[in-house]
Write a structure and sequence with these properties.
Elements (H helix, E strand, L loop, with lengths): L7 E5 L6 H11 L3 E3 L3 E2 L14 E2 L2 H9 L3 E4 L8 E4 H9 L3 E5 L2 H10 L4 E7 L3 H11 L9 H7 L33 E4 L3 H20 L1
Parallel strand pairs: 1-7, 1-8, 2-7, 3-4, 8-9
Antiparallel strand pairs: 3-6, 5-6
Helix pairs in contact: 1-7
The structure holds adenosine-5'-diphosphate and guanosine-5'-monophosphate (5GP).
The site of guanosine-5'-monophosphate has 11 residues, from strand 6 and helix 4.
């Protein structure tokens, strides 16, 4: 008999690289993959719904669940707001045999390495070039170009080294703020270059199917 061992897939990469678009498309085409919703203490933005975009908790509720050991990972307390992955949420998907996926920064990935090592599958998504990243970011957030390019420059910080597997990313999305260590290709199971969206999604779907088959043995 096949053993079911659902995966927790993390998708990491610089802002604007296409993580959200790739996750949405994969979830739509693979019924065995669910995007898991994380929890936060920040105020919902217009249009954001509880249980859809985040589980919005008060500080008190978050700290109570933290004290009870209710999270697989959470961001360090020095941030104004907490963010974290509730065990109850992920475990409910696992109980249904679902693989789960979300956009998680390198700090979150490192926490999952400790709490869910046997479930974890780490995906890095990079843009094909610096120019294309800037194009996507400004298309999504036109206001970025208006601030003297400062926020754009931050997002671009690593992109001279895109194709060097040993380069340690300095970008905050991929550089651990907790210990100052960055990440490089070796920190991930898979590295994808998101050039044509449909091709990236098709490639990831094949990789996920292969990994699932490998784990089912
Ligand atoms: P992230 O989640 O990594 O910050 P998004 O998924 O929001 O990035 O993508 C940033 C922008 O680029 C969005 O407008 C998205 O539709 C677009 N995009 C994503 N992937 C591609 C692609 N392969 N080609 C062109 N545009 C893309
Ligand atoms: P925002 O407030 O803009 O939705 O998200 C701010 C940051 O929090 C993003 O970098 C996002 O990836 C991160 N984040 C969202 N959920 C979690 C989580 O569960 N754990 C951790 N460590 N970070 C999260």
């Amino acid at each position: 008999m096949k053993k079911i061992c659902p995966m927790l897939m993390t998708v990491t990469g610089p802002s604007g690289t296409g993580k959200d678009a790739v996750i949405n498309a994969l979830v739509e085409q693979d019924p065995q993959v669910t995007r898991f919703v994380t929890a936060t203490t920040r105020t919902p933005r217009p249009g954001e719904m509880d249980g859809v975009h985040y589980y919005f908790l008060t500080h008190k509720e978050f700290e109570k669940r933290l004290a009870e050991g209710g999270f697989y990972e959470h961001n360090p307390g020095y941030h104004t707001n907490y963010y974290g992955t509730l065990k109850s949420v992920v475990d409910a998907h696992f109980a249904e045999g679902q693989d789960v996926i979300s956009d998680i920064n390198i700090d979150g990935v490192r926490a999952f390495e400790k709490t869910l090592p046997e479930r974890l599958f780490k995906i890095l998504i990079l843009p094909p070039s610096r120019e294309r990243l800037v194009q996507r970011l400004t298309q999504r957030n036109p206001e970025l170009a208006e601030e003297g390019g400062k926020r754009l420059a931050a997002a671009e910080a690593d992109l001279d080294h895109l194709h060097d597997p040993n380069w340690v990313f300095q970008n905050p999305d991929m550089c651990s703020s907790a210990d100052g260590r960055g990440s490089s290709y070796k920190d991930y199971d898979v590295v994808l270059i998101n050039d044509v969206l449909d091709h990236t999604v098709a490639e990831l779907a094949r990789i996920v199917a292969a990994e699932r088959a490998r784990r089912e043995g």
